[in-house]
Amino acid sequence: MIKAIIIDDERNSRDIISLMLGKYCPQVQIADTASDCADGISKIKQHQPQLVFLDLEMPDGTGFDVLQGTQDEASFEAVFVTAFEKKFLHAIRFSEVEIILKPIDKESLLQAVQTVSQRINSQASKNRYRVLLDNFNHGKQANWNLLLPLANSQETTIRTTAIEYLESGMEGCSFYLEDGTVLQVERSFRHYADLFIPLRFYQVNNTQMVQLSHINRVMNDSQHILLNSGAQLEITERRKKDLLSFYR
Amino acid sequence: MKRIAYLFLFICYSAGIHAQPPTEDTLSIDMGAPPASADLRPYIYSLDMPGRSFSLSQINQQTFTHQPELFHPQPRYNKQPHNCWLKFTIRNTGLKDSSLTFFTGWHDFMYWYAGTHNHYQLLSQTGLMLDRGNVNRWERYAFPVVVPAGQSRTFLLHIINRSYNESALMPVLYDGLGYERFRNHQINTFRAEAVVIQVLLGMLLVFLTIAIINYIQLPDRSYLYFAAYILGLIMFFALRLESKPYQLSVFHRWPMLKYYWNIPALLFCFYLMYLMFGNAFLNLKERYPYMERIFTIAAACTGGVIIIFFYCIAQQLYHVPGIIYSYLYLGLLLPQLIVFVALAKRSRHHPLVRFFLLGSICYYLASLLGFIFQIKPLGFFNALGMFSAPNMPMIAGVFLQAMFFLAGLSYRNKLVHHERTKTQEMLIKQLNKNKELQRKLNEQLEELVKEQTSEILRKKQELEEQRQIQLNIEYDKKLTEIELKAIRAQINPHFIFNCLNSIQLFVMQRDYEYAQKYLSDFSYLIRKTLDFSRRNFITLTDEITYLNTYLGLEKMRFENKMEYDIRVDPAIATTELEIPAMLLQPYVENAVKYGMTNPNQPIGRLIIRFQQLAGDILECIVEDNGIGITRSKELRTLPKHHQSSGMEISSNRAELLNKMYNTDIHIEVIDKFARNFTESGTIVRILIPQL
After folding, report:
1. Which of A12, A68, A88, A105 to mutate to probe the B interface, most B CBs <10 Å?
2. Which residues belong to any copy of the Signal transduction histidine kinase internal region domain (chain B) (predicted)?
3. What is the dihedral of CA B390, B392, B396, B399, to 10 degrees?
């Protein structure tokens, strides 16, 4: 059984979450509910749940405030439940924290609960929440940290600026860092391609995406770019022109 | 001098004494009935020893001899000072005492003695250099010969001529009538000559005046030299302005002037001033520097020679200047010719040279001609001695020279004038050209400026248009953007999905009636939002219905933890009054959002009031009983970059509307707490002037 708490300012929301959990995830036991941040924090401290369903925006604060407030005194996995919060979505995705969008559909709820259950079972580190809070408190997206779920079921946290380029693999993708490390990551290349859209990354070919700040030069006479580390990546003629236009 | 010679010849002829009479000791004449004139040469004994002079006491020891060669009817060059004594004895054979007149010519010093043997008495003295006696002294050259009847008397005449040029020395004895005739004849001749000289002087004076006036008008050195030259000539001829022969009518008070100026004047006029004039006149310094040097040196030498002359004259060496002058004249003929030729070669490029040369040649030829004329009657040396004496050809030459020089000066003036005119014309032409150029340039510039101005104006207009277009585009874009943003803000996705979530819950709870009401209200709201967001103005009724629906949904979400009240002033014609669409919605939403957060108020109360104010202004008030705008802002823990801007969009929109419709929508957000209300909360006051 997984002991859970629901924190949401709307009763309807709390009701539907508990209703759906009761119907589809019987392993989750709702210990209590709270309607604002302050109440939520005290309930968490009181119940020490394994799982918390967190609304993002509440009258007296945000879900992040709850995380912050319980950091030292409780250890739980969180699932954010929100109607529409584009602005927080990136920060959450960077830290690999689960999020469910309202109106809640069965599949995403099941998926989230399953993932969290695994983490609870494997007693996975709670690093992701620190990463999330850091990123949230930190302004510039370029300086955010990125939590990477590795292919060997481990995870690691890297600075986004340290990424030289990433490459699509058979399963998941590979991250090439500026210090020469290569990380095999579980998630797909496409996932990161979407995630990195607001950052200064450029997809030089179908399988590789490079961080612009790491490009040393764009070869004039060949279809290559040279990175600071010395690595050469292929680039298509069309994309080369496109890339060069960035520098003008 | 010639005239004297001719006169003597005439006299000789008329007296019939050209044949030498026999020599006798004593001339016996009946002085009661004497001949008109008598040549005394045969009766005169003379004492003439070259280089020696005798006093009256000495001559008694000397023997007087008969020397007919002593006499000459024409002027003669003696090659030395002449100091001679003449002696003759006359016996009056007549019956009464009578007086005749003895005349030997005009000489420098003459002493007249009478007496018997060894006892002579000075009767009178006269002479060119001796007699200061005005015009009358001319009469004194004829000495009275008084011999009592039947007696004999001896007369002595001492003649001293310091000048080597001696006037005619011819002893003639006249009776009263004869002398009168002779004298009248002389006077007439001299008068004729005086007229010529006077005319010449007049002309020279005119020349001088012209030169001086010209010099004042045009300060040029050549005029000055010309004036000096003319002045010298005037002096030279003024010395000869004699109404009677040898009387020096003007300068008789200082007869030495004749010597002092005679020859030096020639040098001064025809060499010194001539050279300096030529130098300045021909502008040799620039045009012929070599010749200029020659001229200058020659002029300097001439100046030196003139000073030497003066010295000689002062030393009573009267003959020296004459000699030097004659030799200088002859000796310089060839060099002058060379100079003339050299100058003539340049005449083509230098038209003034012609005038100078013609003038010079006129004088020198005339002078030479005069000299040659004199050679014939006088012999070469005599003529040489007489060189400085003016004669008709020389006067004509001088006159011609002065004329040519003056003409040259005038011609030069003309040239200068011509050149000046030409320069002026050129200047004027240049000036006109410049003016024309300037005008053209100005025109071009003006055209250019005009063109450029029009270009600039055109560009400016274009730019203005573009700016306008750009502005319009931007305006439109901004408007669209804001409208879009407004839609987004107004249909808060959070709200939408929460609504959907609620509906989902009702469905799951099988509360279908509630779900259907919720769904229909929700779809009405969405439809209206989409509708209104495309319109700028909606009626107040529409707005009220919209807000009612919206608040109803919110109330359902918040489980009746909120109340709302919409109060409309009955005076307002809600169906006619129009207000900007979606202007209130963000404030109402905010009021709902933050009005529910007051821990002291279990139920959030929202009041919306529409009132008609004076001056056709619609007042909309959105009031809540939340914690107030200030505190709610403080409470928001979200970092700055995460904050929403729904209210900002609304105020932006109000500004935009104000601009678009030139209205004055005024939005005021008041924190109740700050305004000392009894309870906390926020009041948003929106003033909408009716259009």
Report:
1. A12
2. 483-561
3. 40
* Two tokens, residue B442: 């100005």
Contact A186, A169 (CB under 8 A): no
3-state secondary structure B610-668: EEEECCCEEEEEEEECCCCHHHHHHHCCCCHHHCCCHHHHHHHHHHHHHHHHCCCCEEE
Question: Which of these ranges, A30-34, A215-219, B15-19, B613-617, has the smallest mean pLDDT?
Answer: B15-19
Q: What is the Cα–Cα distance from B650 to B667, expressed in whole angstroms? A: 9
Q: Which of A62, A83, A137 sits opposite B501 (nearest CB)?
A: A83
Picking from B380-389, B488-497, B618-627, which range would have the lowest pLDDT averaged per residue? B380-389
Q: What domains can you pick out in chain B, each with its CATH number?
A: 2-174 (2.60.40.2380), 192-425 (1.20.1070), 561-689 (3.30.565.10)
Write the single-letter amino acid at B106: W
Facing residue for A139 by CB, picked from B497, B500, B641? B641
Query: What is the pLDDT at residue B482?
Result: 66
Mean pLDDT is lowest, of A9-18, A209-218, B248-257, B419-428, for B248-257
Q: Is A244 on the interface with B (CB under 8 A)?
A: no
Tally of CA atoms within 13 A in the half-sphere of B301 that contains its CB: 11
pLDDT at position B638, please?
A: 52
Name the 3-class secondary structure at B110.
Answer: strand
Q: How far is A13 from chain B (nearest CA, A)?
A: 7
Q: What is the pTM of this model?
A: 0.46
All domains in chain A, ordered by first residue: 2-135 (3.40.50.2300), 150-246 (2.40.50.1020)
B38, B29 in Cβ contact below 8 A?
yes
Tokens of A203: 């997809």
- CB–CB contact B596 A102 (8 Å): no
Which candidate from A10, A16, A104 shows the least CB-CB separation from B557? A10
Contact B500 A102 (CB under 8 A): yes
Burial call A54-64: b when 16+ CB within 10 Å, e when fewer: bbbbbbbbbbb
Instruction: Judge whether residue B141 has pLDDT over 80.
Output: yes
The tens digit of pLDDT for each residue in B498-542 reads: 888 888 888 888 888 888 888 888 888 888 888 887 777 888 898
Mutation target among A81, A100, A102 for the B interface, most CBs of B within 10 A: A102
Structure tokens at A62: 């945000």
Least CB–CB distance from A60: residue in B493, B597, B641: B597
CA distance B503 to B526: 15
Grouped pLDDT means (10 residues each) for chain A, 248 residues: 90 88 91 90 92 86 87 88 78 88 88 91 85 82 84 86 90 90 90 85 89 87 87 87 78
Q: Pick from A10, A19, A59: which is nearest to B498 by CB? A: A10
* Residue A10 forms contact with B (CB below 8 Å): yes
Q: Which two tokens stand for residue B450?
A: 């005009």
- Per the CB < 8 A criterion, the answer to whether B364 and B334 are in contact is no
CB pairs under 8 A between A and B: 67
β-strand pairing of A224-227 with A215-218 = antiparallel
A-chain residue closest to B501, CA distance: A103
Q: Chain B partners of A65 at a C-beta cutoff of 8 Å?
A: 637
| Residue B642 binned pLDDT confidence (cut-offs 50, 70, 90) | very low
Question: Shortest CA distance to B104 belongs to which of B119, B87, B129?
Answer: B87
Cα–Cα distance for residue pair B466/A209, rounded to 1 Å: 41
CB contact under 8 A, B638 and A62: yes
DSSP-derived 3-state class of residue B587: helix
> Are B500 and A59 a contacting pair at CB < 8 A?
no
Average pLDDT for B377-404: 75
